[in-house]
Design brief:
The chain has 249 residues and is an alpha+beta fold. It is built from 7 helices and 12 strands.
Length: 249
């Protein structure tokens, strides 16, 4: 076993990042994301897996090979994957796994989200993951789907207080936010130590993005401005698309 194979996934990623000469934000932008926080979890020492998902590897393959001196190779990037590698000429590529059968189970409930105000995500996380009665949506990968319970009235035109919302993680589902999406928004503060969440509608006006409440409550009518590249320490990330709401009986 060589020294490279003995390194942790974190060390391998840090090596490639330093060799490329790119910041985490620059890598994220080259992969098609506006914020470093979109990929930060994979570059963290706390990432719980020993390899990266293949969809992430495929995006890295469009960015890192050829960077640095000596240049990063495709094999360097593919070594971070747990996918099946197939030789194609002098290089190896990821073989797409066979489609997984749709599970008979239901989407997990991961906690709650405040609609209307920012509140710390840790306040909404359940110690034990709960199961719902809501089936997975076959249009999206199973691992990208989760459910949150709405707390607050800023989205009461589509999801009143107490409703459950089915969310799809944009990154894991390999989809991008679009105008009129209902979205789950997170912002990080204190160097990423505090994560806060809220739910809003994504609206584009005059080239700017605004996150709008959809409420009959006069307290919740002000939008949140989302300015890509804002230099302020607080970083906003549009994390997930809300695709459906459910009202418990």
């Amino acid at each position: 076993m060589n020294a490279q194979s003995e390194k942790s996934l974190y060390d391998k990623l840090q090596d490639l990042k330093e060799k490329s000469g790119m910041s985490l934000r620059a890598i994220a932008r080259a992969m098609g994301y506006s914020q470093a926080s979109s990929i930060q979890r994979y570059f963290s020492q706390d990432y719980p897996h020993e390899s990266l998902p293949d969809n992430f590897i495929k995006k890295l393959l469009e960015v890192l090979p050829g960077k640095g001196n000596p240049a990063i190779t495709r094999e360097d990037v593919l070594a971070l994957s747990d996918g099946v590698l197939l030789p194609t000429g002098a290089a190896a590529e990821i073989k797409a796994p066979a489609p997984k059968p749709q599970p008979a189970g239901t989407v997990p409930i991961l906690g709650e989200v405040a609609a209307g105000i920012w509140m710390e995500a840790s306040l909404f996380e359940n110690e034990n993951q709960e199961n719902s009665h809501i089936p997975f949506d076959p249009r999206f990968p199973v691992e990208s789907q989760f459910i949150l319970k709405v707390r607050g009235e800023s989205m009461n035109m589509v999801a009143p207080n107490g409703d459950f919302i089915l969310c799809v993680d944009y990154f894991k589902a390999m989809i991008t936010p679009k105008a009129d999406d209902l979205v789950l928004v997170e912002r990080s503060k204190d160097g990423g130590m505090t994560i806060e969440r809220t739910a809003k509608e994504l609206v584009r006006k005059n080239g700017q993005v605004e996150l709008m409440p959809k409420s009959t409550d006069p307290r919740f009518q002000e939008p949140i401005s989302y300015r890509e590249g804002d230099p302020e320490a607080t970083e906003v990330q549009i994390r997930a698309k809300i695709i459906m709401s459910y009202r418990p009986l």
